[in-house]
Amino acid sequence: MEAAAGVWGWGWRPQAASVGPRTCLRARFSQEALDLGPLNLTLRGGSGRGGFSASCLEPLTCIFQGPVSNGAACWRQGPGNLAGIRHIILVLSGKGGVGKSTISTELALALRHAGKKVGILDVDLCGPSIPRMFGAQGKAVHQCDRGWAPVFLDREQSISLMSVGFLLEKPDEAVVWRGPKKNALIKQFVSDVAWGELDYLVVDTPPGTSDEHMAAIEALRAYQPLGALVVTTPQAVSVGDVRRELTFCRKTGLR
Amino acid sequence: MTDSQEPAIEEIKEKMKTVKHKILVLSGKGGVGKSTFSAHLAHGLAEDENTQIALLDIDICGPSIPKIMGLEGEQVHQSGSGWSPVYVEDNLGVMSVGFLLSSPDDAVIWRGPKKNGMIKQFLRDVDWGEVDYLIVDTPPGTSDEHLSVVQYLATARIDGAVLITTPQEVSLQDVRKEINFCRKVKLPIIGVVENMSGFICPKCKKESQIFPPTTGGAELMCQDLEVPLLGRVPLDPLIGKNCDKGQSFFTDAPDSPATLAYRSIIQRIQEFCDLRQSKEENLINS
């Protein structure tokens, strides 16, 4: 498969060494107005690992372009990629910098220590901290027949990660997207990442109560998330934002 | 959307004619002290009674400014000339979505387009009057709010952005993205402030690094990316305490190293704005 610019698709399943689906996809998508800054997704093929077999052997550079409406005709859900996950926990806070990513990381490591298989989904698209927290910067997302393979930290695959940080060509590249585009990627993270069998999926979120949170909850609702862990620091400025986050949880039916 | 399609941009440009200097306070990272810095920048500038200061909080989901300025529970009134900001002092007016909520626990669960609409209204409908400095406090990230404020103020000329960080790499990596964002949208960078940079124990006076700069801190980042480092503000527990109480930290601890650091940074920001203004005047006169 030659390296070429194209539109990375929602619900597109690549077939081995074929150019067909990619060109077909470009015809199916309508190019809408650009948000600032294209996202270059570099998916590199590799040898199969633990049940996954890669289908692309050449580097494929795709350019994300334009917001896509949620009802795009070519969008289809992956084959229940979250079906093998026993518990889903969202880590939230209205306030920034209180330690959501830190707590998500420590929670995942503690669960792994207790013998569980854990996945972390980082839906903070503007400030993805999870790759650095695990020392996994520079790792790439591989493609498999079931979708996108998460980044594994060890051979036992006891911790798997997915973050937009792994999809950026340069670590300092800013993801400058408006809401609809962020929603689309988060939906893709939920449906197209082949998590496999997990005991826990920890979802690390950005601060606030906006697009990312709504997109994550909408996409995860069918899989009945266990609930939310809300993080705060003691100061009143923090607690004020967290009260609002608790209101958000109540309104969205999150325990 | 081009300027011709967005009439609000022209309206905002008209409204901003009475505002001399506009400063954005940004950070890719959350919780580094943007709102704290914005509030104290406003307090510091407003100490000169002859300057009129405006503080605009565009963090729609997590509006901290009302609490930090001691204005919780205040409401926005509307007059013939637009929305009236809430005044802390005669020369310091504040606007935030926090004043529009019926209860402080109300969550603003809005998607991007609605947030953009609110920001447009803040810029177009608030009657700021004659203002020397408009300080805009932003939420963390590089998303709708940031794109909107830059877009709406594009023709009204923003003086520049002040970026806040803490010394850790987890913070710096997000701030580097923010610097790239500023360059992408051609927003001048006034400089970077390293907040929570060291803690001096009030009892033994020994300095500790609570957030160690394992990768060189803001200083190395600024050297690499060729942006000015405006200064370092040490961690002082009184800052957080005063923010919770809604008071100016400068009044409570005028001799703290943090106060001195703030004052020096504020002076550098004023110098930047004055220099920019005189350059523009020279350009017009030549």
TrEMBL record, chain A:
Extent of the signal sequence: none
GO biological process per UniProt: iron-sulfur cluster assembly
Molecular function as annotated in GO: 4 iron, 4 sulfur cluster binding; ATP binding; ATP-dependent FeS chaperone activity; metal ion binding
PROSITE patterns named in the record: MRP
Keyword terms of this UniProt record: 4Fe-4S, ATP-binding, Iron, Iron-sulfur, Metal-binding, Nucleotide-binding
One Pfam family recorded for the sequence: ParA
CDD domains on file: Mrp_NBP35
A cellular component annotation (GO) from this entry: cytosol
Top-rank taxon: Eukaryota
Official protein name in the record: NUBP iron-sulfur cluster assembly factor 2, cytosolic
Organism: Rhinopithecus bieti
Chain's gene name: NUBP2
Automatic annotation (TrEMBL), chain B:
Function of the protein: Component of the cytosolic iron-sulfur (Fe/S) protein assembly (CIA) machinery. Required for maturation of extramitochondrial Fe-S proteins. The NUBP1-NUBP2 heterotetramer forms a Fe-S scaffold complex, mediating the de novo assembly of an Fe-S cluster and its transfer to target apoproteins. Implicated in the regulation of centrosome duplication. Negatively regulates cilium formation and structure.
Major subcellular location class: cytoplasm
Description of how the protein assembles with itself and partners: Heterotetramer of 2 NUBP1 and 2 NUBP2 chains. Interacts with KIFC1.
Name under which the protein is recorded: Cytosolic Fe-S cluster assembly factor NUBP1
Iron-sulfur in keyword set: yes
Cofactor, how bound (note): Binds 4 [4Fe-4S] clusters per heterotetramer. Contains two stable clusters in the N-termini of NUBP1 and two labile, bridging clusters between subunits of the NUBP1-NUBP2 heterotetramer.
Record flagged with keyword RNA-binding: no
Gene that encodes the chain: NUBP1
Swiss-Prot/TrEMBL keywords: 4Fe-4S, ATP-binding, Cytoplasm, Iron, Iron-sulfur, Metal-binding, Nucleotide-binding
Cofactor(s) recorded in Swiss-Prot or TrEMBL: [4Fe-4S] cluster
Coiled-coil ranges from the UniProt annotation: none
GO cellular component terms, semicolon-separated: cytosol; nucleus
Binding site for [4Fe-4S] cluster: 201, 204
Localization (cell): Cytoplasm; Nucleus
Family assignment from sequence similarity: Belongs to the Mrp/NBP35 ATP-binding proteins family. NUBP1/NBP35 subfamily.
Biological-process GO terms, alphabetical: iron-sulfur cluster assembly
Pfam families: ParA
InterPro entries documented for this protein: Mrp-like_CS, Mrp/NBP35_ATP-bd, NUBP1/Nbp35, P-loop_NTPase, YlxH/NBP35
Residues annotated to bind ATP: 28-35
Gene Ontology terms, MF aspect: 4 iron, 4 sulfur cluster binding; ATP binding; ATP-dependent FeS chaperone activity; metal ion binding
